[in-house]
Amino acid sequence: MEELKRLIAKDLLSIRAVFFRPDEPFIWASGIKSPVYCDNRLTLTSVDVRNDVENGLAKLIKEYYPDAEVLMGTSTAGIAHAAITAHLLGMPMGYVRSGAKDHGRKNQIEGKLEKGQKVVVVEDLISTAGSAIEVVNILREAGADVLGIVSIFTYDMKKGHERLKEAEISNISLTNFDTIAEVAAEEGYIKAEDISALKAFRDNPSDESWIKN
To answer: Mind listing the pLDDT tens digit for each residue in 177-191?
Structure first.
C-alpha cells in the first residue's frame, strides 16, 4: 500500500493535480487560506496517470470491499472514476446527484440500484468528508448496503475522520496529504522545512499561524 501511495503522490504532483504553494496560500470559498490546491479532474487528461489511478481504485475495491456489487460516483468529480473503475472490474455503476432533478423521473440516484445491493462510493477527494457522507446517506435511504468509500486523495483532516466515524463509514484513499508532502519535498517541489507548516495546516485549517510572515 505504501508503494501505491507514493506512486499516486508522484503522479498527482507531476501533472499539478495537487500543487503546494506555502509561500502564497490559496483562498478557499470558505475564506480559509490553504497552502495546497487540488484538482483531481486533471488525472483524466493524462493517460499514464489515469491508468495508475483507475487501476489503483480497482485494487482498493478488490482488497477492501471484495463483496461490492455496484459502484456509485459522487457528482460530478467521482463519476468518470466510478465509470472507468467499474469497467475494469466488470461491475455496474451509477452516480448520485447533488440534488434531485426537477423534471422527468426526478432522480437523484442515476443508474439501476436494487435495495440491499452492496455499494462502494467513488470520490475524488476527501477533506472534511461532508459531501461523500451525504452521498452515503442518500444511498442508504434508498436501501443500499454501503460498504465504504474509495477516493484518490485525502487530507486526513481531523474533522473528516470524525465525520466518517460518526457516519459509521470507512474511506480508503490511494494517497494522503502527508505522503504527498513528503514526496514533494524529496522531488524539489517544496522545501523540506515547509512540511511542518503543511502538517500544521492539515491539523487545524482555521489556524493561520503556519503562514510565513
So the answer is: 999 999 999 999 999
